[in-house]
Specification:
single chain, 342 residues, alpha/beta, eight-stranded mixed beta sheet, four-stranded antiparallel beta sheet, 12 helices, 22% strand, binds adenosine-5'-triphosphate, ATP binding, nucleotide-binding, transport, AAA+_ATPase
């Protein structure tokens, strides 16, 4: 059974201007030990996919959500709110972009991480390693020790002392490490990391990504890494899902998709990445912009920007077809490759 299985996920949002169909039939399967890079231009639905899995899309503005999201067979869309709360504290870990807004400046780092450890320990006593009859002070002590261990594990030097500092006494990279420690303290099976290193300088970014990679090797969790950075995906992800205007238009193993991109959007996205070897003026951008999701174009939503558009592209959304093992593409251009692969 897959760790995470998303089938035909649709999400609608209501705003002052009208109703936007922001996720438009997402399919995704994540196994343990896989790190999926979710990429695509701004506004294509990456964050809302992550928030839908943890069921954190508030209603309103969320209007409807249909399809299924299964965590080892349990459909999260039909789970009760208390069940979701315990899943979020234990089996699903989340890291968001900005460490300054996700730590409360008024409380010591230790108090915040110990709270998370106590919550996780309440859901699964084995996490704290104390018996069911342990007193509150014994549980608190175990939670503090666990918090210090986790902080040390994510590379906070002198964790036993730093745990009593306030967030403003930590650098941006260290605050992000604290958030990673918090997300991992419940030993999650699935980690959703939404641009976890965007606000950090490149050397800290590299350290944190290395840490994530090592943790996946050690604990065999599944990760969804939402990012704009295709270089990061090439470095640490095993798989990639390319999103465009609410759909996954190409997905598969990083090696296969990056070596042999089939969808014109993926090709354009890869051509937009600057490299040190490029000559001045050689960098290509993608012409046009993501469509307004209040009134998306008919058929393939990329058609108005596509240089290879054909009349049938606007008739219906092309189905996703396998063009090789671990490589699927939703584009009419991929159909001949699909028959050849079959
Ligand atoms: N609360 C909301 N109300 C209405 N529409 C929303 C709301 N939140 C997001 N959207 C719309 O949903 C679409 C997808 O948003 P989402 O945040 O998932 O994009 P994203 O791919 O993560 O973008 P970015 O890379 O900029 O974070 C966007 O068009 C956005 O305008």
């Amino acid at each position: 059974m897959a760790l995470l299985e998303i089938r035909d996920l649709h999400l609608g949002m209501r705003s002052f201007e009208g109703e936007a169909h922001v996720l438009n039939g997402i399919h995704l399967t994540v196994e343990r030990g896989e790190i999926w890079g979710i990429v695509g231009e701004t506004g294509c639905g990456k964050s809302l996919t992550g928030l839908s899995i943890s069921r954190l899309v508030s209603t309103p503005p969320g209007r409807y959500i249909t399809g299924s999201i299964s965590l080892e067979g349990r459909n999260l869309l039909t789970a009760s709110e208390p069940e979701m709360q315990s899943l979020r504290g234990r089996r699903i870990g989340m890291i968001f972009q900005d460490p300054t807004t996700n730590l409360n400046p008024a409380f010591r780092v230790g108090e915040q991480i110990v709270d998370v450890a106590l919550h996780a320990g309440g859901l699964d006593p084995s996490i704290l390693g104390v018996g069911a009859k342990a007193s509150r002070s014994e549980r608190k002590k175990a939670a503090r020790n666990l918090a210090i261990d986790m902080l040390a594990k994510v590379g906070i030097p002198k964790a036993g002392e730093r745990i009593d500092d306030y967030p403003h006494q930590f650098s941006g990279g260290m605050r992000q490490r604290v958030l990673i420690a918090m997300a991992l303290i419940g030993r999650p099976d699935l980690l959703i990391a939404d641009e976890p290193t965007t606000a950090l300088d490149v050397s800290v970014q590299a350290q944190i990504l290395r840490l994530l990679y090592d943790l996946v090797q050690e604990h065999q969790l599944g990760v969804l890494l939402i990012t704009h950075n295709l270089g990061v995906v090439a470095q640490i992800c095993t798989h990639v899902a390319v999103m465009y205007a609410g759909n996954i238009i190409e997905s598969g193993s990083v090696r296969e998709v990056f070596k042999n991109p089939n969808h014109p959007y993926t090709t354009g996205l890869l051509a937009s990445v600057p490299t040190a070897k490029m000559k001045r003026g050689e960098l290509q951008g993608l012409p046009g912009s993501v469509p307004n999701l209040l009134a998306p174009p008919p058929g393939c939503r990329f058609a108005p920007r596509c240089a290879a558009v054909q009349p049938r592209c606007t008739a219906a959304i092309p189905p996703s077809v396998a063009v090789a093992a671990h490589h699927e593409v939703a584009c009419v251009l991929a159909e001949p490759h699909a028959s050849a692969a079959a």
